[in-house]
Please model this.
Amino acid sequence: MSSTIKSSAFNSSAAFATIILVWSTTPLGIAWSNETLSPAMAVLLRMSLAACVGWVVLRLWRIPLYWHASALRTYGYSTLGIFGAMSCTYFGALYIPSGWISILFSLAPVTSNFFASRLLGQGDFDAWRWAAFILSFAGLVVICMDDLVMHEEGWKGILLLLAAVTLYGLSGVLVQREQFSAHPLSITVGSLITSVPMFVLSWWIVDGYLPTLDWSSRSPWSVMYLALFGSLLGFACYFYVVKNRGATAVAMVTLVTPVLALYLGNVLNAEPLTVHVVAGSALVLTGLAMYYRLGWSYWRSRRSPAATAGLKASLSGE
Model:
């Protein structure tokens, strides 16, 4: 029994560390993907590879892939997040530093909870959470005062990423409303497969040219990393952590990864860390901490089943 508990704790810790690593490096991977590939081709290659590898994994593990009406509706709602959000993210990455992507996407659970409260009548978007959201939004305003936004084209990236976060949150709530029950990896692969034609159409309209992969650049390697780790391994670890360590751990990931993403972007990609970026990011993360109620009073009661269930509901939009 003791060895089983230790093994479970080790696996949970490894999964938790994997999520932090993958979510922290994904924005940088997106930026590097765009170096020698168009955004439309980069995201098309990533999702196509992830769909192919995921399908093989389903076959090896004998996990069924469903194609009935409810499954197709679920895949369609997921496509709104996969195709819509990822397309906006990849094109937005052309205009803003990679670390900003993580800051903006940290607001995704907030938008999910907002849509859940409006579309499902669920989620407690009370005055406290409105105050936390306003504080985080004030942080975005401070970031937008940076010279990259004010005097260059960074505002385009900000708008595209806000659209991505909105589509991501809406997609998750619509999937929840459908209540289709299947293995998470099956839903992911089915959604990827149905999204690929949309990415092909987008590439044909926006780009339309077959690239010559430059293997001496970082782009093809970044695409492979994001397909295998960002789209598959990170997803699997996410559900493992939620199941074994609860929603609290996931909430903490959303507070840790933006800081690491900003640091990695600065060290590995020479992205500037200005006063506006640091101050605005601090406001965004403080607002998120308020939103998740991660204060001392929460941590004292975090072992309470009701407290854990409440935080899990806020993250999932329930």
In short: DSSP finds 14 helices and no strands in the chain. Residues 68 and 74 are 10 Å apart (CA to CA). Confidence is low (pLDDT under 50) at residues 1-10, 295-318. Residues 2-33 form the longest helix (32 residues).
